[in-house]
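Section 3.1 - Work completed
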Amino acid sequence: MTTTSGPRPTPLSRRAVLRGVGCAVALPWLEAMAPARARRARDQEPAPPLRLAVLSVPNGVIARGWMPAAEGAGFELPPTLAPLAPFRDDLLVLSGLALDAGRAHGDGPGDHARACASFLTGAHPRKTAGKDLFAGASLDQVAAAALGAHTRLPSLELSCEPARLAGSCDSGYACAYSTTVSWSTPATPLPRESDPRRVFDRLFLQRRPGESAPAWEERMAQRKSVLDWVRADAASLAGRLGAADRAKLAEYQDAVREVERRIERLTADGGLGAGSGAGGGAAGAGARESADAGRFEHVEHGLRARTEALLDLTALAFRADLTRIATVMLANEGSNRSFPELGAPEGHHTLSHHGGDEEKIGKLLAIDRDYVAQLARFLGRLAETQEGGARLLDRALVLYGGGLGDGNAHTHADLPLLLAGRAAGQLAPGRHLRFPRETPACALHLALLARLGVELPSFGDASEPLAGLG
């Protein structure tokens, strides 16, 4: 840590890290970093910066549990959104948006694959089970191309279920379409990481110069906490900080260690197995014609803890400014994961074709609410983090939803979409906004990109940004 002693707290660079043997732990925003930020005002970079997180969910929702009855600021949270009660004034619930690129347009079955592939790209994917994939560059990657140079990782792509980039998963659509929402180019779906241990190592650890892969693996197997390796540097830095920053540094170290412990428990309990029976996003009877239709090892144990760990790692990555763009698939599109703890031992996708059966609908309502509870937990992590006199949530854009509206009918209208956060005052949350039916969801993407400083003339089927968010 390069600092100088003196009677006043030492100014720090935002890129300062705690260093140890083979690791570098980035720091959270500290008051001592404010002077350095002021000197960089000419860069026109927000201080602290904005972050974009996208959490995607599969199989649509039951609208009566999701959709608020009233519009504007007077809406009440419906049952599915009830876990978000602590953040009601941080939400924009959006109704009426549609994803036309997810529709068949002559390509026949495959709505789950199209919903996923077009969710952030606004592009109708080419129907193929081979290598000639084609969709479009996604919202997150357009943002990362413009903003990624400011951070060590341009973007972070995570999945709570294993992703498959080979094989066929949905009625002749390649598995890649169902298991990633991030595309760097129209022909390049980005792989997603589902192992929290690998994500943690990517964020905080590095090989020593000249260290071989076997030596690295052996050192990792014998390690304790990454914080043990940076203990001396952390102590040295603490002595140069003011009281408020010392407390913030200690709190941050506690958060890093808590995520480490959670990952250790997952590893010890076998919760980092192959994932769930959801697999590659098999969708419908037609998908079962393929031998590759979602045949992963069925490991339900640890999925909730895996999800919590991945979301906590995302929050830590934002907190330490390791990246400002993250996408997290809470499940692959067409996921057939079961939820026995919710009284839903059947697969999610199987239940989504409920045919009006009230018992199945009741189970789907419980699943929809459970996914929203994961969002609420993530928002809590952002809200509890103070940064530059505000909550990290106040400087965030969090998009939650998916490319299917009604999972039973495979519709791509009235999508379940909401925004959380305030984007440093660029959003006016605490409202339910109802737009005319068939308003392009891509208009929302244009609006989000504009708030991140990325101006585009069009995106997908939208040529104007969605109005009324600010």
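Second construct:
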Amino acid sequence: MSPNLPALLRRRNAREVLHTVHNEPGVSRAEISRRLGISMPTILDIVNRYVRLGIFQELGDRASGGRPATALGIAPDAGRLIVIDLGGTSVRGAAFGMDGRRSETIKLPTDTRSRQSVLDQLEDLVERLSASSAAAHAIAVGAPSYVQDGVVIDAPNLPNWRNVPLQQHLEDRFGFPVSIENDVDLAAVGETFHGAGKGLSDVALVAIGTGIGAGIVIDGKLVRGKAGTAGEIAFLVPDPAMLDTSYGAKGALESVAAMPALAGHLPEGSALAGEGPEAVLRAARNGQRDALLAVDTWSSYLAVGLVALAALCGPQMLVIGGSGRRAFDLIEPRLRASLSRHIPVPPRLAVSTLGDDAALLGGYAYCLDRVMDDLAALDGVA
């Protein structure tokens, strides 16, 4: 037997106990033992340790099979998880307890005067969200960029944000674990564990906004790909006629399927020429023919992206997010018909239920997993 096996088993057991108490507040020690198939002495050892550490709290006695049993839950002051959704126009931050309750949310215009001004703003936001009796345990940041090993590779909507070692910068500044992910990836995690895809293991979120991208969760785990570029459907080529043209950082699909592209599909001479996407969508809902034609062409390009994504990843559900979710009533028929026509086992199609909170809740799930891993690791070497 490997000399590390007992520690690995204890770590696995500790993680399962942590998840059980988090997901089922009110569960007793005896119920944990029965559900996980772990001996009662081991459960008592793990649970009592987390009670002493202030991670679990005892909620009081209740009847359980004829004998009183002490119910357990995550302590409200067990720790604070801080999540930031960094965008080119606004930055949102939220503080969560380990039990999932959000204590505070702050939204500010992004200070884009310089690279340093953005970093200063992030530090200030973390400090404000950390002002609590509960110790901060972890930070997660969603960045509008490729991310590799905690480095923001290129965020074109932020000033001089290329190869920014954001994870190291924040860990050096605050002294606790930091995770950096692409913002759409975090939103996909949020929709999978807390939103439209809750209860599913294979979910892809397509975020339609100024750009277009996808976050992919398979077997309950985020798919990142090389340099964090998995899900970059902006670079799909939806028409062979586009193959010989370079679309640069925007990508071929993004040039015709992101929100700003909608008005570009209006017929020549349309009175709506030059209007923004919201005006075109309003006109389409009012039955205006040129707007309906534009939406039909736009949704056809979106359908190309969704069919390709479904064929490659085989998700149980495709979720439409970003500002494009507000057009779901108009684009759903085309998207659903295309998926049914071209995918042998088409995924369910849904609109985001979390909206702008998707990345924040994804960051919470991400932080919680990191903290539980760290706590379980401590048990593994105890």
